[in-house]
Amino acid sequence: MFNRLCVIGVGLIGGSIARAARQHGLCDSIVGYGREQDRQNLQTAKQLGVIDDYTLELSKAVQGADCVVLATPVASIESIFALLKPLWSDSAIYTDVGSTKGSVIAAAERIFGFVPDNFVPAHPIAGAEQSGVTASVNDLFLNKRLIITPIKNTNPIAAQKIQRFWEQMGSLVSVMDVVHHDGVLAATSHLPHILAFALVDMLGHKDEQSEIFQYAAGGFKDFTRIASSDPTMWKDICAANKDEIIPLIEQLKGELDKIQRLLETNDTRQLFETFTYARNARQRFLDQFDNN
Amino acid sequence: MFNRLCVIGVGLIGGSIARAARQHGLCDSIVGYGREQDRQNLQTAKQLGVIDDYTLELSKAVQGADCVVLATPVASIESIFALLKPLWSDSAIYTDVGSTKGSVIAAAERIFGFVPDNFVPAHPIAGAEQSGVTASVNDLFLNKRLIITPIKNTNPIAAQKIQRFWEQMGSLVSVMDVVHHDGVLAATSHLPHILAFALVDMLGHKDEQSEIFQYAAGGFKDFTRIASSDPTMWKDICAANKDEIIPLIEQLKGELDKIQRLLETNDTRQLFETFTYARNARQRFLDQFDNN
């Protein structure tokens, strides 16, 4: 499919793309790019055979590459675009993996004055708490959702090629409007992360006073798992998608107000109906999730 | 330890107590009690060998029992006390498994005018989403916390015997003040359940509009697991412990206000610190949890 794949940022996601692309024969060679502080991770990536080679010079990294994957955290996308601008090739396809798409497109517009038509915004809904190339695996994207959010001037042939690229790595590809993507992910991913961080922040301070965590059980462990996610990555995602997230926080506070009122007025019938609706809604989610 | 164990309510918890008591030789015989609508479950319990026999007549159930375990949902404890009152034996020990202890003690006071000194309030911090005797297992309480909340007039010999009973079933027993228990459980269990129900209630309605659940991932699955808990049981627990829960809901709304403000003011440094504190606090919890 591609001759030379350039992966900018060979971490969990970038490394797993390289592994899957190689496994499925989607490119002839893979080069990794990173900064000076990424050197050891890049060396590991090469030793593990995840990439064929790496360089700390972006011009060398993109030289001859017909596909360039931006797999850095969303907060550094703009500076990567700035570095790529003088090296931009019309014959290559560029894509990214950012969790928020509006912010990536806005970053491109700020750097280029427009969004290059050979840049295809994409987002694999897959991940893990661990990071770095040592956490990368061949099948991170297998049977996982991938969303492509093309904009008006996105080259449809480039978009189709990126779609096939992900499908061949085993992903279930959807094409979606940018704003819709950011709204859906704010609801199903960003808000839950904020809630988990908020709860554990609050209870952590209580625990310092009176050691409550020793009485927390397995349900608490699962509920708070996403509060162990990378704080750097998540502060950036939340900041990048705040326009979608803030109204959802408002809405959730309203939902908590509702439950508080039901408790205050002893309206156990309505409380039961709210909890029952939630349980049924989760079952609807599970039925879809497990059928993937 | 006991001659005849009477289990009132042979569900997940009552059934697992019966299984563990038998496995560890803590009683000679076990009788189950339930209502007419529980007959099939009680038959199953007898067929499975969880109990030796059952009856729908409480007077027969408690006859000759030197230990009576109230393992019904917290909302029905008061009516069980009322039924037990004319049958109450000073030579038996009574105990319960309710998730909220203040409400159980208040129920006893309403029925008896005081809390009988041979009633030992207890709470095993263990459970599952499934219910009924078919979900019961031998080792539900193994290495799990059990909290005993004696009050002033609780007979210390009865309390010690219940402590040994649970220790022999493998539980890690703590003795705690009633109010402290209800505060700790509100924070580590009841509030997380309310949050999970609230989030899934809110997102379920969104999903009806625009099918967002198909893009939710594994993190969402874990985060919302407790929203699949039994709505009947949880509306009762929340209502029974609302005095502890409502201030925590208020506090959590304040925490969400804080994060919302950080997003609005682009204070990513403070956002990072909040998320990092939460991640470290969860690690502190995990270190304790995994060492149990």
From TrEMBL, chains A, B:
What Gene3D superfamilies does its record include?
A: 6-phosphogluconate dehydrogenase C-terminal like domain, NAD(P)-binding Rossmann-like Domain
Entries under PROSITE patterns matching the protein: PDH_ADH
Sequence ranges assigned to domain Prephenate/arogenate dehydrogenase in this UniProt record: 3-292
Report if keyword Oxidoreductase is assigned.
yes
Alphabetically list the UniProt keywords.
Oxidoreductase
Concerning Pfam families, the annotation shows: PDH_C, PDH_N
Q: Is the Lipid metabolism keyword given for this protein?
A: no
- Name of the molecule in the record: Prephenate dehydrogenase/arogenate dehydrogenase family protein
What organism does the UniProt record list as the source?
A: Candidatus Methylobacter oryzae
